[in-house]
Amino acid sequence: MKFTYFEWNEDMAQRLKALADLMSIYNYLLMRMDGDVEETLRLMERLQAQGILDEKYDLDEFKEQLKKQNLIQEGKSGLSLAPKGERSLRQSAFDAIFNKLRVGGKGDHRVPREGGTSEEPLPERRPYEFGDNPRHIDYTASIFNAIQRDATLGFDLTEQDLEVYETEKSTSCATVLMIDISHSMILYGEDRITPAKQVAMAFTELILTRFPKDHLSVITFGDWAEEIPIKQLPYLAVGPYHTNTQAGLRLARQILLTKKHVNKQIFMITDGKPSMINRPNGSIYKNPVGLDPRIVNRTLDEAVICRKKRMPITTFMVTDDPYLQQFVARLTELNKGRAYFSSVDNLGQFVLWDFVSHRKRKGKGHG
Predict the structure, then answer these.
(1) Gap between the Cα atoms of 124 and 108, Å rounded
(2) On the CB side of 49, how many CA atoms lie within 13 Å of its CA?
(3) How far apart are alpha carbons 257 and 217 in whole angstroms?
(4) Coil, strand or helix: which one is 165?
(5) How far apart are CA 168 and CA 171, in angstroms?
(6) Assign residue 151 a region: left if phi > 0, alpha if psi is -120 to 50, beta otherwise?
(7) What is the DSSP secondary structure assignment for residue 187, as one 8-state letter?
(8) Where are the alpha helices (DSSP H) in the chain?
(9) Check whether domain 172-362 has CATH 3.40.50.410, yes or no
(10) How far apart (Å, rounded) are the C-alpha atoms in residues 344 and 342?
(11) What is the three-class DSSP state of 321?
(12) I need a labelling partner for 43 at 20 to 30 A (CA). Which of 98, 115, 164, 361 fits?
């Protein structure tokens, strides 16, 4: 069963007013409406009638432009996102989050990572230094330097003539992104699933465009866990589910074990403590009250197994629930992973910045 939560409030009005243009507003509402184009366009009409959306926008013309640009398509059931529209939504999420990083003035805190590194040439060049990999020498530039130095075509190269390309050292990595779709992600009038989806789409765009040799899987977890294709991200919705973190970690580990990448990691976005597990006999056990030792211990067992398989877990908590903080602190300790406490507004910065900073480092081309 699909549940869509939408209740207008002043904070939402301020968010819309802060968006730069109609396309940004459309993309934001589209994610909030779980990728339902028809409902999103109807909502925009209602917002304009209420004076929240500026009257200068011609919504009929906007809809026609979406069709002309092949961002939406019309079928028997009405308007829906076209494949190009799904890609556009990912790009929009990517731009929104990285704009936050630039505005926030974050520096480049890249951290070396052992294992499975490779060097990719960059356009920039510099003088050769002892120990540089000969494969990175720019012979055209080096020969030109020699000709300039002695004004002959003798090609008498010396060390001072050599130039090498700067290189970027990167690690091959397989990542599983876990998204909590339990009912608490929309509980008490706070929408946490929309920014979580925005992060997932931006994260996917990052992998596809900047790290094409990497692998990214996305899984959702509520009463159970399942892997979803990238194209389903805009349509992701919260259900009347408990939080089966154990099932999510187990599926993430099983997926990563099939990958040949040297580095493997799990990112988990959640706002609730675990409240459900699967018993070995196939039955389930639920308890939404407090921290049930039976549920917690079985979930922590998965974290320990992941550590033994060298799969660090990075947890991003989108709430200040003390029960969740207590659980995540223990999970992080046992897994030797990382954990971040954040608001939904800062969620994107934490996820993407942690991935980039631990994913690659820039070197001077030394072999």
Answers:
(1) 18
(2) 6
(3) 12
(4) strand
(5) 10
(6) left
(7) G
(8) 10-18, 22-32, 37-49, 59-68, 83-103, 139-150, 193-210, 245-257, 293-308, 322-335, 347-359
(9) yes
(10) 7
(11) coil
(12) 98
Task: Convert the pLDDT of each residue in 221-240 to its tens digit.
Answer: 999 999 999 999 999 999 99
As a whole number of angstroms, the longest Cα–Cα distance in the chain is 84
**pLDDT tens-digit readout, 164-199:** 887 655 567 999 999 999 998 887 778 888 888 988
Place of tokens 């599983």: 176
- Among 32, 28, 33, residue whose Cα is nearest residue 15: 28
Name the β-bridge partners of 340: 316
- Bridge partner residues of 178 (DSSP): 219, 268
pLDDT, one tens digit per residue, over 96-116 is 877 666 555 443 333 333 344
Residue 38 pLDDT > 90: yes
- Answer whether 42's CB lies under 8 Å from 79's CB: no
User: What angle (nearest 5°) sits at the alpha carbon of residue 352, between those of residues 347 and 358?
Assistant: 125
pLDDT digits over 294-318, tens only?
999 999 999 999 999 999 999 988 8
The Cα–Cα gap between 301 and 276 comes to: 14
Q: Retrieve residue 187's tokens.
A: 């509980």
Cα separation, 355 vs 259, in Å, equals: 18
Q: Where in the chain is the domain with CATH 3.40.50.410?
A: 172-362
